Amino acid sequence: MNLAGKRADRDSSGVIQTPAPSARSRMPAWAGRNYSLLTAAAVVTNLGSHGALIAAAFAVLDNGGDGGDVGLVAMARTLPLVLFLLIGGAVADRLPRHRVMVAANALNCVSQAVFAVIVLAGEPQLWQMMLLTALGGTGQAFFNPAAEGMLLSSVQGEQASRAFALFRMAMHGAAIGGAALGGAMIAAMGPGWVLAVDAAAFAVAGALRAFLQVDHIADRGKGGGMLADLREGWDEFIGRTWLWTIVAQFSVVVAVVGAAEAVYGPLVARDELGGPGPWGLALAGFGAGTVCGAVLMMRWKPRRMLFVGSLCVFPLALPSAALAVPLPAAGLAAVMFVSGVAIEVFGVSWMTALHQEIPEEKFSRVAAYDWFGSISMVPLATALAGPAESVFGRSSALWGCAVLVVVVTAAVLFVPDVRNLTRRTGAVVASGQAAASDGEHAVGPAPAAVPTSPSASASADAPASASASADAERSAGRLG
Whole-angstrom Cα distance, residue 22 to residue 401? Predict the structure, then answer.
């Protein structure tokens, strides 16, 4: 279930201290240069990418492909994302994160531009589309951990959840326009031009991210190499029960939601709803729901963040059920709206928990394990979506997706740390020097039962996403 800020210094206790804003500034204290650049870049890429998701599916279908072929193209994007995520996280915690982000955007720009050219030229081959989407997935593998680490390191204090909510509101607001515009453009002009727009969006976003500043991030030590960095990130990840259990939950949730919406959604739209327009409307409904959810989270700060967030994962079963019926376009859009509100409550709560509990110097590596676990089953699920439709029927396969979401979400609520992790007031510790007693207030009773790494900031755990870091939009990329 995704994810920015101003220059900051650290005092001797490791607490981020932010300079007082200028009297002339009209922005909140937490909305500095990096935050503004990250938000603008995310808006640009979401305008392009949400239309491109629809375009890629219809590019396959328009050239004689079926549901199995759509699943293969989706798998081709996700497989390198899974393979390279952990390396991407280690690289992002070692190199300047903004440089990793710009390089990844450049690769995505080139791959989408070539994809657009072969679609516009006519009769693209399945292997060509799979290869180009694989290149895009490789770029995202390096981009996602760097982007999440950059955002988490750029906000501070009690307003972090508000900053995350506003960031996500802007991102999903762009998704509304991108999905609706993309569906309309595909219907009017074909999918190739939508892919070209996405390539241009990556170019603009990469240029914006080149101006990010990293002066507020402490210099990294030389460390013991890539494997040592990965082991250190693993210790941080596995030492927090709430973290790895929710990631395990989302390994199933993201897989089945991704299969339902990336493979079955376009097929239901084509066969039952009249084409890409209604499916674009449904995705726009999801985007509208996330905007409303972000507005809600700007004001609401639930004390038991992960408990409330996990309850809001149950509505993610609704879109699969709606496609199984199937509901008419208006009903499907309404269901997608509800799921959008719900996942935004989870997404902001998740990002706030990561920001509160994870040391800054490990943000990207933990984000990489988060993303890796959350999307690891997506290639298998998308590849099996077509065969499952053939064996069980499309409706039965979709009902199965809905049931799996409910079952794994109910299971994670039995984990005490998920129910008990609470929001801390006061300054958020962002280094590995926090007092161990801080963890007692973070997770409730018996914190010693939760093992931690030696440098953990507290003793207890997408998507965004995603990506997030592990919410529903992770299958598309939470942070643009």
Answer: 51
The tokens of 30 are what? 């937490």
C-beta of residue 256 within 8 angstroms of C-beta of residue 407:
no
Q: Which of 368, 280, 429 is nearest to 94 (CA)?
A: 368
Distances (CA, A) of 175 to 37, 44, 68, 304, 359: 18, 9, 26, 29, 31
| Rg of the Cα atoms in the chain | 21
Q: Is the pLDDT score of 298 beyond 80?
A: yes
Closest CA to 379 of 471, 258, 249, 246: 258
311-325 pLDDT, tens per residue? 999 999 999 999 988
Average pLDDT over residues 39-56: 83
What values do phi and psi take at 195, rounded to 5?
-65, -35
Token pair listed for 240: 């927090």
**Residue 461 and residue 243 in contact, taking contact as beta carbons nearer than 8 Å:** yes
pLDDT tens digit sequence for 387-408: 888 888 888 889 999 999 999 9
The secondary structure of residue 423, as a DSSP letter, is P
| Structure token pair of residue 286 | 């999801």
pLDDT at 441 (0 to 100):
31
pLDDT at 31: 61
Is 218 strand, coil or helix? coil
Residue 349 burial class via C-beta count within 10 angstroms: exposed 0-12, middle 13-18, buried 19 and up: buried
Cα of 255 vs its chain's centroid, Å: 13
